[in-house]
Design goal:
The structure holds 2 protein chains of 2 kinds. By secondary structure, chain A is of the alpha+beta class. Chain A has 10 helices and 10 strands. In chain B, strands 1, 2, 3, 4 and 5 form a 5-stranded antiparallel β-sheet that branches. The chains are: A alpha+beta, B alpha+beta. Chain A: It catalyses: L-threonyl-[protein] + ATP = O-phospho-L-threonyl-[protein] + ADP + H(+); L-seryl-[protein] + ATP = O-phospho-L-seryl-[protein] + ADP + H(+).
Chain lengths: 267, 201
Amino acid sequence: MKTETKQAVNKQRVLPPVFQYPSAAVPLLITQGAEALLYRSTYLLPSIPCALKYRPSKPYRHPILDVRLTKHRILSEARVLVKCKREGVPVPAVYALDEAAGWLMIEWIEGEVVRIRLNEWLKRRKDEDLAEGVDDEQLLELMTRVGSAVGRLHAVGVVHGDLTTSNLMLRPRSREGLNGDLGAAVNTLEGDIVLIDFGLASQSQADEDRAVDLYVLERAFGSTHPRAESLFGEVLREYGKSFKGANVVLKKLEEVRMRGRKRSMIG
Amino acid sequence: MALLQTLHLEHLPSSHAIHAALYRDIKNATHLQQQLLNGNTDFEYAFIDAGVIVSKIHALAAAYRAVNDLLENRLRSRNVHSEIVFSLSPNNNIAESFRRFGITPTTTNLLIIKVSTPTSPAAASEVQEHLTSSIEGEQVPFEDSVLSQMTDVARIKKIYKLNSGGGGGKKTGQVNGAKGDERKELEVLVLGAMALRGVTN
């Protein structure tokens, strides 16, 4: 109780002015990472939801370095997002930013992350006692969409840097999904893939960086959804078709698998 | 219904209201531009050529950025109104931004934005009254349906360098299929370009 109020006071003090100015609803804290706080809020009008990403200053950093890092990270994330949007990669749009104050406002993506949807889907199948490999077209199809989205990202010269099933959103396809009969066969794996959280993204065309993206994603599927791991080949198959040079990346992936994400510093 | 719209944008102090008015077929563009050039303080408005505005959101985004920069004490141009015009720009050239987005003698459709601030508060009725007496043209609602008839999409694409034709094998993989509303897509690209203005480092 006491710590709670303390925290609240603390937060009140560190949040930049943008949080204090009135909005239809108080920004709602959605999630907190090591570097940033993510709020749900509104942009310009109460009818436009947005994600407000705030990077608080780190007291343990030298103040000058701290300001520089924050600026740099906000700008690089925004730049990568704008580039992706321009090239047709499914990512949130950039609305506004204030690198000096440490915040970035981007499009709010409806839906849920793949990790959650996949768990729901796998659980339901377990409850229905369906064996692996039976009627899993929906999962296969999801893997295809993931492979295509990641391929598109890499094709435009961007690597994500933290590609996990928590950074892939499934956005419901407008309307149809809502009007459809919700009772019978709702496909929890339906929706458009949207890539999110570009906090660690960078512009790179290196096969190594691309392969590491795939490796991290493969591990994410493997660790949180062991039963989905076997279908990861489907992601890679679609990825291989998505741009020229993708096959070289797949070759590189085999190398990365042998040694892990970090490259050896010897020799 | 009043044609002048007054808005309080999200995440701006309530003391900074935004008034917006849209005019069609204005006749005295040269005179209006001259008032700005002369620094006539009765004409503290953002006069925007409606032809380069995609939507309400586009215009409001510029107002939001300008007011935020005003509050953070980092205006790059003369005042918050010229800053709104400058905020529409994808680059740091202020003079160029006025030529592209601001009023020129050939402007026919004019979007006017007025920011009320604590130091120079402006009530909707006063603003409307002054505009009515100064603008020779037909006032129309500040709505997307009206704006969209004025929008010169080709010009906007050129200014924001969105002519995707060149290289890159565009949209080879429309990942999620089905193309959405084209106007919305344009809007989103424009907002991104504006947000990145002045971004170095």
